[in-house]
Amino acid sequence: MSATPGFIRKEDAVVLMLDHQTGLFSLVRDFQPDEFRNNVLALAATAKYFGLPTILATSMDQGPNGVLLPQLREILPDAPVIKRPGEINAWDNPEFLTTLKATGKKQIIVAGIVTDVCVAMPTLSALAEGYEVFVVVDASGTFSNVARDSAHIRMANAGAQLINWFAVACELQRDWRNGLEGLAALFEKHIPDYGNLISGLKR
Amino acid sequence: MSATPGFIRKEDAVVLMLDHQTGLFSLVRDFQPDEFRNNVLALAATAKYFGLPTILATSMDQGPNGVLLPQLREILPDAPVIKRPGEINAWDNPEFLTTLKATGKKQIIVAGIVTDVCVAMPTLSALAEGYEVFVVVDASGTFSNVARDSAHIRMANAGAQLINWFAVACELQRDWRNGLEGLAALFEKHIPDYGNLISGLKR
Amino acid sequence: MSATPGFIRKEDAVVLMLDHQTGLFSLVRDFQPDEFRNNVLALAATAKYFGLPTILATSMDQGPNGVLLPQLREILPDAPVIKRPGEINAWDNPEFLTTLKATGKKQIIVAGIVTDVCVAMPTLSALAEGYEVFVVVDASGTFSNVARDSAHIRMANAGAQLINWFAVACELQRDWRNGLEGLAALFEKHIPDYGNLISGLKR
Amino acid sequence: MSATPGFIRKEDAVVLMLDHQTGLFSLVRDFQPDEFRNNVLALAATAKYFGLPTILATSMDQGPNGVLLPQLREILPDAPVIKRPGEINAWDNPEFLTTLKATGKKQIIVAGIVTDVCVAMPTLSALAEGYEVFVVVDASGTFSNVARDSAHIRMANAGAQLINWFAVACELQRDWRNGLEGLAALFEKHIPDYGNLISGLKR
Amino acid sequence: MSATPGFIRKEDAVVLMLDHQTGLFSLVRDFQPDEFRNNVLALAATAKYFGLPTILATSMDQGPNGVLLPQLREILPDAPVIKRPGEINAWDNPEFLTTLKATGKKQIIVAGIVTDVCVAMPTLSALAEGYEVFVVVDASGTFSNVARDSAHIRMANAGAQLINWFAVACELQRDWRNGLEGLAALFEKHIPDYGNLISGLKR
Amino acid sequence: MSATPGFIRKEDAVVLMLDHQTGLFSLVRDFQPDEFRNNVLALAATAKYFGLPTILATSMDQGPNGVLLPQLREILPDAPVIKRPGEINAWDNPEFLTTLKATGKKQIIVAGIVTDVCVAMPTLSALAEGYEVFVVVDASGTFSNVARDSAHIRMANAGAQLINWFAVACELQRDWRNGLEGLAALFEKHIPDYGNLISGLKR
Amino acid sequence: MSATPGFIRKEDAVVLMLDHQTGLFSLVRDFQPDEFRNNVLALAATAKYFGLPTILATSMDQGPNGVLLPQLREILPDAPVIKRPGEINAWDNPEFLTTLKATGKKQIIVAGIVTDVCVAMPTLSALAEGYEVFVVVDASGTFSNVARDSAHIRMANAGAQLINWFAVACELQRDWRNGLEGLAALFEKHIPDYGNLISGLKR
Amino acid sequence: MSATPGFIRKEDAVVLMLDHQTGLFSLVRDFQPDEFRNNVLALAATAKYFGLPTILATSMDQGPNGVLLPQLREILPDAPVIKRPGEINAWDNPEFLTTLKATGKKQIIVAGIVTDVCVAMPTLSALAEGYEVFVVVDASGTFSNVARDSAHIRMANAGAQLINWFAVACELQRDWRNGLEGLAALFEKHIPDYGNLISGLKR
């Protein structure tokens, strides 16, 4: 067995989208708002398109953190939503952990707000238990570039792989012939430049 | 009569959206793609919401410039589309000019790709004929910030007012009580931060 | 009389702080949050220190725009707060206009959120009626740099003077000997680098 | 025992704030002044809120480096302040080392000015002696981004974990129910966007 | 006659390319080297394509300023090159002025290194004598953005129009049907994104 | 044998240029277009100059991804072009793998669009099979800086060496005396500043 | 007489360097420290080289503003230094005004810290009295880019000309033959790139 | 012996300054010119102040690379200068290697132009032979940030420590009492902000 880090495998992966809540979005300053909302929804649409088990979570959604982003819920209406009453690290919430472990998956694809806490803590916890973790950097946001970069280094040095949502989709697809139209529709909707290339062809 | 530049008046204004074509979008480097597509569609949705006469135009849409952005067309399916066979300045196209003048409006709200040509040329032409011109800076794109800033100075010094799509919407609305829900829906869709504030209230 | 733009004169000036509301702050992307909140509070503290009449205003503060920034209210507990039920341009609100005109001042120092609407509209209205207008650029915020810069050009070309809060304070003070300690305290609190210089001297 | 890097544990941690002196603040160019002062004070307030032993230090505070930031001292009036007569690496100062070792803690949370010297040197010394070190990147400042990034890489490659003050607070808190109001007050004061969310709820 | 600034007219325009010398290129820091060299050559190619009279100039080309950019000379092998023995403002050189006036043109299209001197001085001199001046901002370079922006404001306030090379080409062409292939070839060579659109069509 | 990462050795290296297609270029936002096209062509010219075996590849070149950049093809007219009918990871394409393995080389120099997929996937695959991989960072492009940086960290942590095209050329050359004029010509063409230095000498 | 703004004329100009004090330098955030100190000294050296009358000034130099920059004083040991006891606008200080008027010059070249106050106030005062004012933008510094840009617009709209120190030197020199070695030495010292070009020639 | 990376030790270190040549400086785009020249000279002055053996080198200094920076030579007039006739990697030059090995030092402090070649190659060579290598990141320059960052990662992953010149000086000094005035003079000259703090004290 090679020690080289592996790719995401569709049959082994679960997606965790943590604390994408309306209040917390206002804390995110390492992305522009249009770009960030799009990235979050794109990851959700990717999870849906490939039929990956997906777990949503919120933290104290009655308070200032706000409610789960409604547009995210619309894409994934059937995903379980774990409403944490207080645990900052989702891994500390028994319901969350049970739900995750019930999937039986060993590869975790994770994104959330904020990168340095809601993503970093479960990432480190999962790595400690032997999971492979793929942190989706562009669907995770935080206060500043320095907070982001430091969290990235911390997680990567602990063994996580840093990845963007587009690469997640491509690793799951592996071959365009595994459903050309679906992938094209996903990219057309969430990558304006790709959409323009596709529209240009339809002429 | 005051010499102070006036606001946009709903009854006097026409919207020109020039050359928002799939090929030309790939030339735009003064905005990120997500942000720019959103701004363009937001201006179209504003024009539609306020029922302003709107004229779309393309330049040589059989060639590399590409076709009219389909998502823009979906918002404004009934707006006239002037397909210019070669004139770079829309003002030089008789059909365009006739269509514009038939609206009888004297305030022009204009956006397009690229700012320094497809927007600047008709802006200067319109100002020379006595129109008031409002250039929508964030729904217009070009190659670089230096090209943009120079075109802004050129147009502003010639008498144009520089404005962003949000301000266009607000000047047309004047009072939130002139249709609260419509404006809120417009902002919810096209301003993620505003959408999050509104979603938070619905809790 | 010289046509050169004049300075702010303490006896002629009124301060307008428009729509610095908790929800609207989340729309501001042309400043970092720490810097912007500090600038807003610094302008309020400047107005208080010099005893300038100051008018606060909010727009639909029961909705997503949120409530008046509490820290701002703490600095200026006695200033009138005009709660506009819908008018986007404060100038369109009779109570606001009456309150403003009752001050008898002809120099307006104005800041607000967002620059391109809540600041730009009353600025243009005031200029049209012959007021001198000083736009406090660093206590006003908006969606993007391009929106800000365009609003600045529009207002400046209409006759407004662009200024930052520090320059407002300095023009009002004119001479350090007009109350050295008060001004130093203002700067020590709101300009970290200045505060460090002052602390260094106390050693 | 897992090799995965662990979290900060309240019972095992000591905070070191090194050389946050009024003169040295003027050397910091990798943060804006408002943001940086706020971050430093936020880390101090975090240490205080969680009751962590905290050691302050200065370097030659009679000279150009200036005095300990007074606002920092106000938050932590009882923390020991080690005034180093010349040692650049605090670890070389016997009083500092004795004070640190007397706490019996094995996790060090460290910040200071400048990152590449006053933070990096004791970090490397502590790692060499088997401490776990958490470098608080946003309460540490230096001359430039390239100096910062290089120091980060150097420390991370030596085994330090890079973290921001917000994540420090969250790892110490672990669960919002461990004192909801205290944490909320901390965030309300030091994170303007969070403060606005909380203020909005009070309406 | 309208006071609105006019467009460039092919029959009335002369191009001045001032001091694009190999040494002076190393002073240019407001553009990346690839982008800037391309812009300069693109302006030369535009002048050639439209057959505009073009005057090149150098300043002390035996010294540190270096020789005329060879690639520029290759595009315009027959243009006169005025080698100024010392005059900083080309307008002060009799041979230059004579050559310019002999063209009989009243519209000057000018670019050079550095923007704030070699472009600004002849621009102000030409405006003072009643010429229309179009400053090609992206084929002119200087030490910093602040030097550039200030020179732009100075020249624009004196009456110059700021423009980029692409807009120069488009105003000269006016209609794509005035030689579609030539213009397309010009853009394909000097605008990579445009080139890619054109190549895509050839498939 | 030292564990230190080695240099590129001319006799052991093969160059892979993956998916430099006209459509995909419009997705690249981490470089300006002029700079990026130049870097890509410079890498190709380097491969050619040193006579390295080079394999080009495209992905679905009948669709929106577009055709192989014609200027790249002109430099390397004889290199094999593997047209992948669907495989996203070139390593999954048997023809590609056969062609690569037929070279017998164990050092791979790779660049492509986009960095996080078309470069990262074959890089990880090659590392897993024991190849030394050199990722040419400035001839590879993607959507954003955060996507790029994350892919770099992922690949570097897996064992790849990050390098730029200039360093590739220098490691292949080792000594200027191994063909001074050829290397100088390469740099003169693709590094404007170097070209200006060389031109200056010819005076 | 032409209305076009004129150049600086050596026989008509006086240089004002206002409040370049050691404390105030730490407030400057729109330039990097190395670059800004160099620009300030370069302007002083320019004034000295051309023998222009130069007036230095300080504001409360016993307090936090600090003393006059020693390196500046070394260049201009004989220039008068007006130590203002409190007036923020140097124009309000009788000694300053008398000294200035005694020069009999009508063109003012001014720089200082901070741009928006110590430069802007005397600039507006001088313009009101009919002086021509040249604001040296790169030898003047302030808190932020937005403060700088706004002050630039305010001053330029009032009639000031924005210029950088290099352009000041060039307008004073007019012709390289008016003392080639002196100008070259000035540039060699204060423009590293120019210095390198000159050093290269000496080989 | 601890595996933690050690500090620079004065008795064990040699300084290599590679290819700081007048031509090559014009290639450096990851620093502003003032800042970079200052950093290079500061490192030289540091080497001199601590009396470290220092080796200078040039590459083909009769050609476009230019001559050794004269100001650097002035600081270190007695250091050996190895003029490489062609070897790109200084390690490949026998005279260089002999000179280096004759020092008997095992810690190498290295800087040069360009980072990714002239610094990276000898760094990797030295690491392979068991040297400790400290790469001075701010006295080394290259074409772009992406080239720099990649070279940093490559060298750091191979075992080099990244450091800035200020940290080099501090690690060599260890304690301010080891010659307070000399270090202060070094910082006063090369760190403007530090200089201002020191000047302020002299008042």
TrEMBL record, chains A, B, C, D, E, F, G, H:
It comes from Sinorhizobium mexicanum. It comes from the Bacteria. GO terms for molecular function: hydrolase activity. The keyword Iron does not apply. CDD domains: YcaC_related. Keywords: Hydrolase. PANTHER family: HYDROLASE YCAC-RELATED. InterPro entries: Hydrolase_YcaC-like (IPR053152), Isochorismatase-like_dom (IPR000868), Isochorismatase-like_sf (IPR036380), YcaC (IPR048239). Residues 14-164 form the Isochorismatase-like domain. SUPFAM superfamilies: Isochorismatase-like hydrolases (SSF52499). This is Hydrolase.
